[in-house]
Design a protein that fits this description.
Length: about 260
């Protein structure tokens, strides 16, 4: 399994607009320059993309990605679904069907945000997008590859986490559900959002390091990668205090498990 972090940033990227760097100390460190959170997973011949960010085009092009098979949407916030609108163009260029997997709640958000996408023959390629709507906590299979899912609370909505074998990707959450704790045992790699870094007082529906340390003490993944990092997180400053088996993601990072 090959994993590429296409984007490691929070909803507004790093820096935010108007070059707002927040608490980031070293703006010359390329690891502090973050596009919105997106992960690319290659399993055998199959290529999976987790979320469709506003930076989709830049992320795909910069990383020389030439093919996609399935896209998983974690939830209906802008930073995770913005490029739904570009999918038909992607399908048209690739000359193939693209499968999208998401929860009923996320599908409802997508339809509200992009109603024109679902009109017949809107654009060449729109008929090539196959929407696979999952029940909460449903397991599924794509091209013979099995995935487990579970829901976590994320502010006013829930977000879907995905697991294949020893890899789990857990995006925006404020708390890990009980079913999540069951499904995250025996992992080689846990990729989890840590939007707030060391700030455990922010009430914004997001996660922080203190929560993650509690959960990983219990769940014991071999490695943990923190992503969806906001301008609260300076790469070198937070890296210094992480345990050895925990790392911060950065754009372009590649991992093989
Ligand atoms: Zn997000
Ligand atoms: Zn979100």
């Amino acid at each position: 399994m090959k994993i590429t972090i296409l984007g490691s940033g929070s909803a507004y990227g790093c820096p935010n607009c108007f070059n707002d760097w927040g608490n980031i100390k070293n703006i010359t460190n390329p690891k502090n320059h973050r596009t919105r959170a997106c992960t690319f997973v290659e399993i055998e011949e199959n290529k999976f993309l987790i979320d469709l960010t506003p930076d989709f085009r830049e992320q795909i092009n910069k990383n020389n990605i030439s093919d996609l098979d399935a896209i998983f949407l974690t939830h209906g916030h802008y930073d995770h679904i913005a490029a739904v609108s570009e999918l038909w163009r992607a399908a048209h260029i690739l000359k193939k069907q693209l499968h999208v997997f998401c929860s009923q709640e996320t599908f409802a958000e997508v339809k509200t945000c992009f109603p024109y996408f679902f009109k017949p023959n809107h654009e060449s390629g729109s008929d090539k997008i196959i929407w696979n709507v999952l029940q909460d906590n449903q397991d599924f299979e794509f091209a013979g590859i099995k995935w487990q899912t579970f829901q976590n609370k994320h502010g006013h909505m829930s977000s879907t986490a995905f697991r294949h074998k020893n890899l789990a990707i857990v995006m925006d959450l404020e708390d890990l559900s009980d079913i999540g704790k069951q499904k995250l045992k025996n992992l080689d790699l846990l990729i989890m959002e840590c939007n707030n870094g060391q700030d455990d007082k922010a009430y914004n529906g997001h996660n922080n390091l203190s929560n993650i340390l509690n959960w990983t003490t219990e769940l014991k993944p071999k490695k943990t990668l923190l992503t969806h990092l906001s301008t609260r997180v300076d790469y070198d400053e937070l890296t210094k205090i992480l345990p050895q088996d925990m790392k911060l993601a950065y754009d372009g990072m590649k991992i093989e498990i």
